[in-house]
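User: For a benchmark we're assembling, each entry needs the component sequences followed by a predicted structure for the full assembly. Here are entry 17's components. Please fill in the structure.
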Amino acid sequence: MRLPLLWIIPALPLAAVLLNLLLGDRLGKRGTALLACGSVIAAFGFALRAVLHLAGLPEAERHLIEFAWTWMRVGDFSADVSFLLDPLSAVMVLVVTGVGSLIHVYATGYMSHDPSFRRFFLYLNLFMFAMLTLVLADNYLLLFVGWEGVGLCSYLLIGFWYERPSAAEAGKKAFIVNRIGDFGFMLGAFMLVAATGSLNFDRVFAAAPHVFATGGAAITLTALLMFLGATGKSAQIPLFTWLPDAMEGPTPVSALIHAATMVTAGVYMLARSHVLFEMSPAAMEVVAVIGAATALMAATIGLAQNDIKRVLAYSTVSQLGYMFMACGVGAFGAGIFHVMTHAFFKALLFLGAGSVIHALSDEQDMRRMGGLAPKLPWTHATMLVATLAIAGVPLFSGFFSKDEILADAFASGHYGIWAVGIVGAALTAFYMTRLYVLTFCGAPRLTHEAEHHLHESPPSMIAPLVVLAVLSFIGGYVGMPFQEGGHAFARWLRPVMEAGEVVVPHHELSHGAEWALLAVSVVVALIGIGGALQAYLVVPGIATSLRERFGGLHRLLEHKYWVDEVYDAFVVRPFMAASQWLWRVWDSLVVDGLVNGVGYTLELGSGMLKLVQTGFVGTYALWIALGVIALVLHFTR
Amino acid sequence: MIPLSWLIGLSAIVFTIGVVGVLVRRNALVIFMSIELMLNAANLAFVAFASEMKSLDGQVFVFFVMTVAAAEVAIGLAIIVHLFRLRETVFVDEIHLLKG
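Assistant: Structure for entry 17:
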């Protein structure tokens, strides 16, 4: 076997979608679950086989391309459906299929009471197909197909419970906000076609240094347009508002799409295009600043939210900010490392939250939780691991990846961004501990009904939690710091990351400095955790008195800086007004007027002409006779 | 021998009577007879030219015209009979449904 059968990885979930559609309800619940989970687990198996094959190759040859067919050929431009497996897409494909499999298994338990069980797995498998196309594509066009596909599935799954108006609204919001980003991505792709004549990764990256001036306006514009696409998909400032609302969808969806996989597509795209971004220092600065600003802003909002899923949503936005921060300072590998660890612990957090919500009969407000630790022992233990991982406690996975990002930011001289990152890390530790304490510790504040139905989740939901907890714990060890020539994860990604002409100089910190930075991140994480424990567990009065003392600030955070309201006032409403005007004036008067005018004119003309048709045979005969006379006169003249 | 111009003149007169008949009469049967007049005027012109030019072509044509006219009469009369059954009239100015 020379080629590792890449096409079959996205094809398996697609086949499951088609079978699901064909067989319909004849599958039954068990059959649907088996088909959906089986296809994704099989895809994971094939992905694993392909990646093992890749790992067996010498480092320079880890770049497998599998051509399926030519999609279109227009003049010199051609787009292929062909797949690329290199160390970067290998990481993504394993995370997507691996975490995806676990979440599929979990969802069979979580959605077991839902009447639309089959539709749910249909969408979920369709999502897997689109996401795998996205990460395995070897050109921007096929990547865009996956990009749009995951956007569509995101919309369908956010609005899964469409009978709830808020869910339908949230789905629309996600779709429209994403469209703004996609628009940027498309313009960026057009720029690439115009400059290099191709969308194929290899050809674009090879041609880029010859057609773009390093640091020039063209490459900066291209990079920024593509980054706009990433801000939409990955929920960064200014397009982050859709992600918290996306929590209207079922919790496995939040875990799979809005935490572990789809929202990291933007980071993946940036890492994939690192050759282009590295040619534009200005665009890199923008990426770093936006990432840091998002990380801080979302973390502060997370402090004041009461809905358990919303806290996690803002946490996701914040963590995505860290990933972009990493890309912006040139540490694309660290960004992808954080994508991986984040996929583990954030999927775990969402699934754990889902388990809590499931146990409490759909209660999501943390003010009506508390004291759940003894009742939900497995959920509690796994959530604790995830909380420690995201808070950056040493030896857990999040610690390694977050610390690497912060160290790289410091090493590349972005001290301001490093400081923001440190503050964000403290806030992350604080709000995650707050979430943990409010949910699992203290006295129960459950409603009577919720308490009555309280139960630990079934094994199909607990098993994925345990697997993810193990991964959240050990996932970081591939990125142990203090290793000569970089850690295992960085070495793995090196063939991808060192491609391209302009390589950002790698800044080596002395071991002393690295230890010092490490110590700082540990200290701030512990301060965050300690502060939250103090405020919510040991002396519960502190939180209340702080809230009263800084009422304005608290309201600001609770209302998410009024970003939604500002967008509503300055973007949505003017846009609606403009649309109304276009509808009433341009469409109703001008366009309709033209169309109707043509009709009226014809009606008037034919109204006059029809008078000729008298219905009397004699008249017609007279016309014929006159015509003959006229012809005879004409020809005999 | 009657000169050709007389024959053609007679043919023209008969044809004109036919045309005027078609245009001015109301009765479908009379209109039909007028059409027959026109056909026979044409036949007259044919045989006149045929004898003048010593050619049989014109006479052969006349047979064709007479055959076609016979068929036409059969169909035309059938239509008129049917029309009468439907509308109880054969006056064409009372039948003007197909007007704009």
